[in-house]
Design goal:
Elements lengths: L1 H9 L1 H17 L2 H4 L6 E5 L2 E4 H19 L4 H4 L2 H27 L6 H10 L4 E2 L2 E2 L1 H10 L4 H22 L6 H11 L2 E9 L12 H10 L5 E2 L2 E10 H4 L7 H10 L5 E2 L2 E9 L5 H16 L4 H8 L3 H4 L4 E5 L6 H7 L12 E3 L2 E11 L2 E2 L2 H34 L5 H7 L4 E2 L15 H7 L2 H4 L8 E4 L2 E11 L2 E2 L2 H33 L5 H6 L5 E6 L8 H7 L10 E5 L5 E10 L6 H29 L3 E3 L4
Antiparallel strand pairs: 1-2, 1-21, 3-4, 5-18, 5-20, 6-17, 7-14, 7-16, 8-13, 9-10, 9-12, 11-12, 15-16, 19-20
Helix pairs in contact: 2-7, 4-6, 6-9, 6-25, 10-25, 11-22, 13-18, 18-19
Length: 630
């Protein structure tokens, strides 16, 4: 039993689970996973509900990840109602898949022990101080989010149980040598090409755009000319970080803190122990009698390692003479822990100790005394902590002042700003989807576009951006949503229509050239008219080359013989190319190291496919109901 606990808590999948949980903290915070204030269900999965609050948190978390990765370029996508609806539906599908996996794991009887959960929590960096688990820090973080330890343990149990099934599915896949060879032949194959690239600008001079064209484009795309409601804000921002420059910490306070918290700057005593385990099984009395018999042999001088190897039911440690490596207080079962730390000297052996796993005999084999860091080693950390505490105290004091003055004098921010000695900042005009990064918070945007601020022109209440930052804002300029007139957008429409017609003309020309090439006719005169000529590209790879992506994709769709030897490609900027395949170059021989890497990647892809197929099968057989109000 102890063998399984040790392997589970120290294996690679335990580390992977920890990594996943750490990412959860980074992106969402502890609390976002553990709270749900409402009961409105957006979906039910085999009778279990997924609440609107769960969906909203998952949506906000995933959107924030995308925005942090892609920046402002993603904002335009989220301005599309269709994209937004598809995005939310994909998030809901992911939540449904997670719920199905959780239910299946429970049905299969998968379990995670309390010891595994404890080991996971102990190793999480969020709860460590000086490289060691800090229980006070652990309790403080949970308290800050308003949760009990049991809530967090329940969450971990669900996630770790779910990950057991996911790992079993994804890690069971493999790739055959033949598949690796085939993948190498396809992925590392290169091709030689001839191509003619012509800019659509070459055709723009002959394009005419009529008023009818412009009006038709305007009417057919009227929704794209709708402007978003926009506001310009004046605001006062108060943050703990900014206040650190307005507070100070006396050196005497640093030393006093150190002396009052010496226990936090020490390294726990570590003991290396070996044990002999006799599992109770069906006959507890017999197991106890055997353990006491082995203890008698030890008292008479028998070798502990030899007895452990021959008799211990913990086969993993038995192979090493019963060695369990170093342990710290509270790492093991309470009875085991008490007995191990009661041993006085290296070489001492305990009496028979009973735990839920059976009967143990414990030997102390090494001892590392507790150590305490010096004041100089931790003074910097303490100073930062006290500085933060002082800034936080000042933060709450000024927050109350800011809220009071902004409410008492609602038609200006000057009095409130002066009261807390902070500047009034101004934003640019922005919509909900183009808010500056420092103001892009759902709570702030809801208030900024509210009738109270827009129509009544009042100061907002205190708006919390995060645990250490608040703002008070007011709208100083407002532009309502409207549809731009044709005159406003005529110039842009004319350019768009002209570019589209030029591209169509270029494509028609290119298709004509391609057809003549297929027929074996000369096209030199047509190329000369456009001042272009055939260019060559040798050994073009599928990825990583310099040729435009559209040309590469077309090139790798061609055949060496017949009409499929040549085709037309259109690039993202509207240029058009005629592409002809000249030769196919075989992939180089697969090296051992690259072969192993490719095999692993193929296995991972297959594992992901198996996992998705498993999810699809579970969903096909499940009762899933999705709210029509989604």
């Amino acid at each position: 039993m102890l063998e399984r606990i040790r392997e589970g808590s120290q294996g690679p999948w335990a580390m992977a689970i920890i990594a996943l949980i750490v990412l959860s903290f980074v992106f969402a915070g502890v609390g976002s996973y553990l709270t749900s204030s409402g009961t409105t269900a957006v979906a039910t999965v085999n009778g279990e509900e997924i609440s609107a609050q769960e969906l909203e948190r998952a949506y906000q978390n995933q959107r924030a990840q995308m925005e942090s990765q892609y920046g402002e370029s993603i904002a335009q996508l989220f301005s599309s109602e269709q994209y937004l609806a598809d995005f939310r539906r994909n998030v809901l599908d992911r939540l449904i898949a997670e719920k199905l996996i959780q239910q299946q794991a429970a049905d299969m009887g998968l379990r995670v022990s309390d010891e595994q959960i404890r080991e996971t929590i102990v190793q999480m960096p969020e709860f460590q101080f000086g490289g060691q688990f800090d229980n006070e820090r652990f309790q403080a973080i949970l308290r800050q989010n308003g949760f009990q330890v049991a809530d967090f343990r329940d969450y971990l149990r669900v996630q770790m149980t779910q990950n057991q099934l996911a790992a079993a599915l994804t890690n069971s896949s493999f790739a055959l040598d033949g598949e690796v060879q085939q993948a190498n032949a396809l992925q590392r194959q290169t091709r030689d090409a001839k191509y003619v690239l012509v800019s659509s600008d070459e055709f723009a001079g002959s394009i005419e755009v009529t008023d009818a064209d412009i009006e038709a484009f305007y009417n057919n795309n009227i929704a794209s000319f709708d402007t978003d409601e926009q506001v310009k804000l004046a605001y006062v921002k108060l943050s703990v970080e900014d206040l650190k420059g307005r507070v100070s910490v006396e050196e005497e306070a640093v030393r006093t803190y150190y002396e009052n918290n010496l226990g936090s700057y020490g390294k726990e005593e570590e003991r290396r122990v070996s044990h002999i385990l006799i599992e109770a099984g069906d006959d507890k009395d017999a197991a106890k009698a055997k353990a006491e018999s082995l203890k008698a042999e030890l008292d008479n001088g028998a070798d502990f390692a030899a007895l452990a190897e021959a008799n211990s039911d913990d086969t993993f440690s038995a192979e090493n003479g019963g060695d369990l490596d170093f342990i710290t207080p509270e790492m093991m079962d309470p009875a085991f822990d008490e007995a191990a730390f009661a041993l006085q000297n290296v070489g001492d052996v305990s009496d028979v100790v009973e735990t839920e796993f059976g009967f143990h005999i414990i030997k102390l084999t090494d001892l590392k005394e507790a150590q305490v860091k010096s004041f100089d080693e931790v003074a910097g950390e303490i100073r930062d902590t006290l500085l933060y505490d002082a800034a936080m105290e000042k933060y709450f004091e000024l927050q109350n002042t800011l809220a009071e003055i902004a409410f008492e004098v609602p038609d200006t921010l000057e009095d409130a700003a002066n009261a807390v000695d902070l500047p009034i900042q101004e934003s640019v005009l922005f919509s909900r989807n183009t808010a500056p990064a420092e103001l892009s918070f759902p709570g702030l945007l809801d208030v900024a576009f509210s009738s109270e601020l827009v129509e009544e022109g009042l100061n907002s209440d205190i708006i919390e951006l995060d645990d250490e930052t608040v703002v008070v804002a007011r709208v100083i300029e407002h532009e309502p949503q409207r549809t731009q007139s044709l005159d406003e957008v005529r110039e842009g429409i004319e350019a768009s229509v002209k570019a589209e017609k030029a591209k169509e003309a270029a494509e028609a020309w290119a298709f004509d050239i391609a057809q003549k090439v297929r027929a074996g006719e000369s096209v030199e005169s047509e190329l000369a008219e456009k001042s272009v000529s055939w260019e060559t590209a040798a050994a073009v790879p599928r990825a990583g080359g310099t040729l435009a992506r559209a040309l590469v994709d077309t090139l790798f769709s061609l055949a060496l013989e017949g009409e499929d030897k040549v085709d037309v490609a259109t690039t993202v900027n509207g240029d058009v190319a005629v592409v002809m395949l000249e030769n196919v170059n075989a992939a180089p021989e697969l090296e051992n190291e690259l072969g192993e890497s490719l095999k692993q990647r193929l296995a991972q892809v297959q594992g992901q496919r198996v996992y998705q197929q498993y999810i699809d099968a579970l969903r096909a057989n499940a009762e899933v109901t999705i709210s029509q109000t989604l």
